[in-house]
Write a structure and sequence with these properties.
single chain, 304 residues, 2,3-Dihydroxybiphenyl 1,2-Dioxygenase, domain 1, eight-stranded mixed β-sheet
Length: 304
C-alpha cells in the first residue's frame, strides 16, 4: 500500500494539481463520470479582497486523488481571468494549468520576484465546499501567478493549501476507476533546454537531460518533462507550447484502463517499439489531452 502526503514541508515543492480548461462543464462532467471519476460539486471561485469577496470569473469541479487532484475549469463571469481561460480554450480544449504546492506562498513569491518573474500579488482564493454531514465550509488557498508572457506554456502557478482536510474528503478520493495519484506532466515546447531551465528557476530545482529531445525536472513529489517531439509517445501534433499529456497512478491499472476505454477514451499506440510500459490514452473531446496510466510512483516512458 502506497502512503501519500498531500502537504509539502518546508522547502519542498509538490506537483499539486493540473487543470483542464473546458468550454462546457456539463459535457465535461458527463465524460468524467463515464471514465469512473467521482466529482466534487460545481463551485464558483471567489477572491477574498479588503472590500469582500469578488468573483474570480471561473468555476470548477475536481477529481480529488489520494495524491494531488485534477481540476476542470470553465468560465462563469466576465473577468480578466475568465478571458484568459477562453483564449486558451480557443487554442485547444485540454490541460492549460499546472499548480505546484509549497508550504509558504509568500516566501515563494519573494523567490519568484528575485528570479525576475514579476509575480502578481498572492491571491486569497476561496470556494465553498460541502461537508459530509451537511452545510458548507470555506476552502482557502493562497495562489501566486505570473504573467502569461513569463510562462507561455500555460497558467503556471504556486499555491499554499490552508484547509487540506476540507479539500481532500475521503468520499471524493475513492474512484470506481481506481485512480489514486497525479504523477507527472509532459510539456511540448520549441526549446526544451530553455523551458526546463526557466521552470527550474521558477521552482528552485535543477533539470536533468535524458537525451537530445527531453529534459526532466524532478520535484519533491511529481515530475515535469520537456520535449520538442511527443509523437514517439503516441501523442498527435499539438500547437506549441502546450501541456500535452500527464501520468496517473492507479491501484489497479488494468481496471482503470477498462473504465477509461468504456467511458470513451481511446488507446493510442506508441511510435517507438521500445516504449511498452503504461497504457496511453487520448481523453474524450469534451476534456481533451492525453494520459498515461500505470502504478503509483512509476515513471512514464517519456520521463525516463
Amino acid at each position: 500500500m502506497v502512503s501519500f502526503r498531500q502537504i509539502p514541508g518546508e522547502n519542498e515543492v509538490f506537483f499539486d494539481h493540473l487543470a483542464h480548461f473546458v468550454p462546457d462543464m456539463e459535457a465535461a462532467s458527463a465524460a468524467l463520470e463515464a471514465l469512473g471519476f467521482v466529482l466534487t460539486p460545481f463551485t464558483e471561485q471567489c477572491n477574498r479582497t479588503p472590500q469582500g469577496f469578488v468573483p474570480a470569473g471561473t468555476g470548477n469541479r475536481c477529481a480529488m486523488l489520494e495524491s494531488g487532484y485534477l481540476e476542470f475549469l470553465t468560465r462563469c463571469a466576465d473577468t480578466p481571468l475568465a478571458s484568459r481561460l477562453e483564449a486558451a480554450i480557443a487554442r485547444y480544449t485540454g490541460v492549460h494549468l499546472l499548480a505546484m504546492s509549497v508550504a509558504d506562498a509568500k516566501a515563494t513569491r519573494a523567490h519568484l520576484e528575485d528570479a525576475g518573474f514579476a509575480p502578481d500579488e498572492a491571491v486569497q482564493l476561496t470556494r465553498a465546499i460541502a461537508l459530509p454531514d451537511g452545510g458548507e465550509a470555506e476552502g482557502r488557498f493562497s495562489v501566486v501567478r505570473v504573467s502569461p508572457d513569463a510562462m507561455p506554456e500555460g497558467r503556471i502557478q504556486v499555491l499554499t493549501h490552508h484547509t487540506p482536510d476540507i479539500v481532500w474528503q475521503a468520499r471524493w478520493t475513492a474512484h470506481p476507476n481506481r485512480i489514486v495519484s497525479l504523477e507527472a506532466a509532459l510539456l511540448l515546447v520549441d526549446d526544451p533546454p530553455e523551458a526546463a531551465a526557466r521552470f527550474g528557476r521558477f521552482l528552485g530545482r535543477v533539470p536533468v537531460r535524458r537525451d537530445h529531445a527531453r529534459l526532466v525536472l524532478p520535484l519533491d513529489r511529481g515530475t515535469l518533462v520537456f520535449t520538442d517531439d511527443a509523437t514517439p509517445y503516441g501523442i498527435s501534433t499539438m500547437a506549441r507550447p502546450c501541456i500535452a499529456a500527464y501520468a496517473l497512478g492507479s491501484a489497479e491499472p488494468g481496471a482503470s484502463v477498462q473504465h477509461f476505454e468504456a467511458g470513451g477514451a481511446k488507446r493510442v499506440a506508441s511510435g517507438h517499439a521500445a516504449i511498452r510500459e503504461g497504457a496511453r490514452l487520448e481523453m474524450p473531446p469534451a476534456l481533451g489531452g492525453h494520459v498515461v496510466i500505470d502504478r503509483p510512483g512509476s515513471v512514464p516512458d517519456w520521463a525516463r
